[in-house]
Amino acid sequence: MKSELFIPILLDFSESFETERLLVRAPQWGDGQAVNEAVRESLEELKPWMPFAQSQPSLEESEYFARDSRLKFLNRSQLNMLVFRKSDDAFIGCTGLHHINWDARCFEAGYWIRTSCAGNGYITEAVNGVTAFAIKELEANRIEIRCSGRNARSAAVAERAGFTLDGILRRSTRSMDGELHDSRIYAKVRGAEF
Q: In a 3-state reduction of DSSP, which class is residue 54?
């Protein structure tokens, strides 16, 4: 029996969702300034973990990120999403789905939050939202969160969001400091956690 060719770009799904306190949406042209301000504020906290935060990006580089993310969202190769607080429309961080395997419907969730908004449960709420989005809209079978074994705050988000630690890959990732770090892999799997 011949199977039909699967083309992700033909998938139709929402470009946004809301949680109790947040609006999470695909990037748009013009979002670079808000992203740039948040990265500028949060550079020292992001620098140890995020390759894009090794130096302050220019406004042009941040706008490029927004536009490139928009195009990748549309062609379904990567689903970066921006997180806004509904009470004041403030941009507070990013989440999204990366390293997408459409055949197996497996996704890796990523996230970061601007420094002034940390500690309020926003990023856990966003991760729970993007997880529900992946399950309902994208028919996910597996959703992973990967983080450095040294990034206790990121691991805590995964644990608060109900992800199970699948394992630790020892000395598997060269981090921003040049040293090899362990990688913690958390997951939610259809039939187990959802």
A: coil
29-83: pLDDT as tens digits: 999 999 999 999 999 999 999 998 999 999 999 999 999 999 999 999 999 999 9
Contact yes or no for 159/122 (Cβ under 8 A): no
Q: Is the pTM of this model over 0.70?
A: yes
User: DSSP letter at 4?
Assistant: P
The alpha-helical segments, DSSP class H, found in 32-58 are 32-46
Report the C-alpha gap between 48 and 33 in whole angstroms: 23
Give the DSSP letter of residue 52. G
- One-letter identity of residue 71: L
Q: What is the dihedral sign for C-alpha 152, 155, 161, 162?
A: negative
